[in-house]
Amino acid sequence: MVKQNIKTALGFVGRFFVRTRRIWAFAFLALVLMFLYMPLIIVFAFSFTTGEIGTWNGFTLDLYLTFFRHEAARTAFLNTFLIAIIAAVIATVIGTMAAVGMFYLRKWRKKAVNTINQIPLTNATVVTGVSIMLLFLSLRFIPFGYVAIIIAHTMMCIPFVVLVVTPRMYQLNPNLLDAGMDLGLGPAKVMFKVLLPQLLPAIFAAFCLAFAISLDDFILTVFIRGEINTISTFIVTHGGYLRSPIQRRAFFRAIASVMFMMTIVAVILVYWYVQRRKRKLAKA
Amino acid sequence: MQSQPKWRLLLRKIFRFQRGYFVLPYLFLAAIFIIVPLIILFVQAFMSFEGDFTFDNFRSFSEVGGWSLLWRSVQIAGLTTLICLLIAYPVALILSSKNLKVPIIIIMFFIVPMLINVVLRTFALREIFIWIERLVRESRGEIFHLSDNFKIVTALILDYFPFMLLPIYTILRTQDRSLSEAASDLGASKLRVFIKIVLPLSLSGIISGIMMVFLPAISNFAVPYVVMEFFNADYQLLGNLIWDQFSSRATYNVGAAYGLILLLLVATSVAIITKFTKGKAKGGISF
Lengths: 284, 287
Fold this sequence. Notes:
Oligomer: heterodimer
Structural class of chain B: mainly alpha
Largest sheet of chain B: none
Number of helices of chain B: 13
């Protein structure tokens, strides 16, 4: 009788996973997580030693030093972040404006803008890369390089920004804007003082997403990069992999590990920050 | 306001700033950097190097073996999607279960690989493959190579797994538990509840996940490029074919034509899928 009550109380999935089965569930999760992270973890572990992966030549930071001294690698690393920040900022600004504007459009115009917004998302990145490259070849005053990459990354990120901000617009209370205008704010001021603060979490999330997408990109960059390298194009073009000796390419491990660790640290920081805010709100 | 003529009122209405106008900067940029490039792509695909109208670019697709390459891409992408789905669905079930309280940090860790550069992830996997091959070669004494297809499929699964997980998890998380409870109260076995209630309701998430994995997997060229150690000799997937037109040769028109083929392929698939899912409930990112 008691056992039956527990089962109904636990609900649907509870019927699958009673106490002992919790271990199986977590074991499965751990297995999948291990499979996902194993390559990066192994590369991280072996980034502290020279030589082939699998042979431990003693703990050393040589690979990291090689990375820091290698001028092309350093430049590529900085380029990646520079481009990502600029593209993310521009994309967030224009994308947020577009999401707000789209919200106030009439039905068919809203649909039209939405379709245009979906085009870069549904197109294969290769196709977008090819088409933008052809564009820059035709408009010869835009050179390949930083400008081209930033433009391309921005255009790639804006649809994601719109995708993140638009649902938030629907969650807002429309009366607040009218209330603001009733209380004396002009139509322009009311946007900044009422709408923007409410959108701020979505805007921040959109910025982070745009930043991550720009960091992540390879295919779009490789078409229009000219002489500039980002991390991904650097690793691909300086490959020639099996032909160069292990010493020359081993430091790629250091690059991968640095990026990996930065991402993990960023995620943990965000998680910690969110937890702190939750506790603060719970206390208040 | 009827004191003014009608056209004047209309002009005044257009020039008065309305909230919808915020969308204009984006439309302006989209016209230049999304619409125009596609037009150029379309035009260039039909032009030869000298500038005459021709279908030759498209004909060369069959000559180079494009169709068999396409079929191979579809097979590889299909296998990847299937395996991703089979693994992601149980994971999503566990993660979304309200009874096993899975901490948010674990959910975040499933998503994190999406944020790491795809080249870095694939590069790490390549190192593992090289290591495995070396180990086997040293123990057996003969040259050992993992099969190409195995490498590509594994790399694609590793790359796209979070993309399959996310829509399914989102749908399962917001699923109404009371329906399943009602079903089991009415006497359905656990398996039946799953097949008849949970699975159909999560179908839109599954389809969303499939679209986010299958279509990019067909056109991906970064992953095969890195995994196959940057060889140019053997086109693996469709994306590699397109890329090759631009990297080693300057046959831009041919590349444009191939790109157009890929574009039409993807657009048709999306259109077909959205037509089929029109009636079902929506969820996740609508493509």
